[in-house]
Specification:
With about 240 residues, this protein is an alpha+beta fold. Helix content is about 20%, strand content about 25%. The chain is rod-shaped, with a radius of gyration of 44 Å.
Amino acid sequence: MDENEIDYDLLEIKYGINLRPDADDEETTDGADGEPADEAAVDESPAVPKDEKKHETSAAMELYDWLQCIVSAILCGILIFVFIGRVMGVEGPSMMPTLVNNDKIILTNLFYTPKYGDIVIIKTVAFGDTPIVKRVIATEGQTVDIDFDTGDVSIDGKVIEEKYINDLTHSREDFVGPVVVPKGNVFVMGDNRNESTDSRSNYVGMVDTRQILGKVLFVLIPGQNTDGSRSFARIGTVYR
């Protein structure tokens, strides 16, 4: 034993006291260079506060909810326009003042049965692939008569009140009345009576209900009036 080396065992026996230096007080070294070793690895990445993490999670959930709502709205819109309604355009002045040229309208044929006063879109052989828009005046089994002198239209012998027309019905075309509407057909006319080709004409005649594409519900985008202006107040239902 080196004379400078302390015999801790002998001192402990002689004095009854443990004079050994505490192991925790000894300086540990890392490797051959003798540098003090770190007791724990230091995490140099900045700590993220819990409140900030909660905020990020909340923002992500909110964004997800918005995306879910947008996708659901788009899908609902597609289903509505495919199965319930569709958008079509109006051509010509035959339905003025109710509808004007270039109006964009919504129509539906879901569980639809034609009745008096309905505005309908019709596809007839006479007009080829171009649908026309008219108003249902009479349905199957009803009798239609028109007094072209007074401009009055009668259904089953009773003159009907027509607040929706542009002018009285003075244009005869090919009509000779009274006529009874056949089963499965309707009698239609345009609201602009003297500027409309409709059931008064042999060119159109009685319209088979299977030729009706649907009932017009409302105006989505108003077209141009005769003076070039647009009446945005017309947006909405076509039935007053």
